[in-house]
Hints:
This protein has helices at residues 41-47, 52-56, 115-122, 152-155, 169-176, 185-208, 217-220, 223-226, 239-251, 268-274, 298-305, 324-333, 338-343, 347-352, and strands at 2-9, 20-28, 31-36, 59-62, 67-70, 72-77, 125-130, 138-146, 156-166, 232-236, 256-260, 278-280, 310-312, 370-373, 384-389, 392-396. By secondary structure, it is an alpha/beta fold. It is globular, with a radius of gyration of 22 Å. α6 (185-208) runs parallel beside α9. β15 (384-389) and β16 form a beta hairpin.
Amino acid sequence: MLFIANGTLYPMAEGxxxxxxNGSIAVQDGKILKIGNGFTYEDICRDYGRTEQExxxxxxxxxxxxxxMPGIIEAHCHMGITEEKKGMEGDDCNETVNPxxxxxxxxxxxxxxxxxxDDALRAGITSAMIGPGSSNVVGGQFAFVKTKGRRIDDLxxxxxxxxxxxxxxxxxxxxxxQGKSPSTRMAIAAMLREELTKxxxxxxxxxxxxxxxxxxxxxxxxxxxxxxxxxxxxxxxRVDDIFTAIRIAKExxxxxxxxxxxxxxxxxxxxxxxxxxxxxGPDLASRNKIEVQxxxxxxxxxxxxxxVKVAITTDHPVSLIASLPICAGxxxxxxxxxxxxxxxxxINAAQICKVDDRVGSLEEGKDGDIVIFDGNPMExxxxxxxxxxxxxxxxxxxxx
Length: 400
């Protein structure tokens, strides 16, 4: 058992107080057993009949009044697929020879030995949505994983977790240079519609079944999307690309997240009406493309004010993974309410990624992914004192 005492808890959970002073958390078998105040480690041991032998293996942490929060979540990145320090040899982010590749799986390219994983732990980031880049109209399947471990299979929370699709400059640049489609936004939309139409036809034939039905590996990847088990993950920056993504998702009755959403502040009410959430960022990056010329930290706050559920992303390695809490802080500085900034990298991110049954808040029964900070993590001088994943301490700052 892990027991954290004397913490200032920020549960990020609906129906719980925003802040719990002098709070405690008990974690058993990787799950949060109890959270709140008014109970001690001795109370837990008595109530659950822990033996002296079991007690010897327990870890007791005095949080010293510091901030105790759910593990931070990166809702969109390419950590371990675009590895740091390795150039082409470590870059497996984009299969730029075919614009339609739904059957690619992130889990087959994520290298959890990438240095970015250690950086994530030091920043209190305990899980991340990782997948292919935006060079293809359809890039492949994302996976939601924990950030500590050597074997990717052991880190998976949800896979597949989303299907990557991309609009705008990136597919155009990659394929017009090869002398083939897509070289226009019209072609991107047409190719995606064509692929989805084939996927729907495949689904109908699959449902009829029969002994003669042969599964198609490429179109099997679309089934969880068509069944609304996972969303489209749409790379969109510009207003027109956002509208095109919404149009196509509505045509095929699909769930979708609007990733980057750089000009979302210009059409905030329309995005709210679409009922799709936004994963905003990376705003801590240069405006090095035409489609990101209006990128700004104010976007998250404006979208939230219009009722859009918002998460924040670094899009690592576009911005470094460790800057995620600071990116949320800069969004707060630009107008996002403070608690919404914290939610944008915890419970909102978990809900948008469809993993809030396990992570994103400190609640009984959820994964014991917990971080202790010596202050608000969105402030630049704040230190991560301790990072816990599944009830195991995976990072401990020398200050702690």
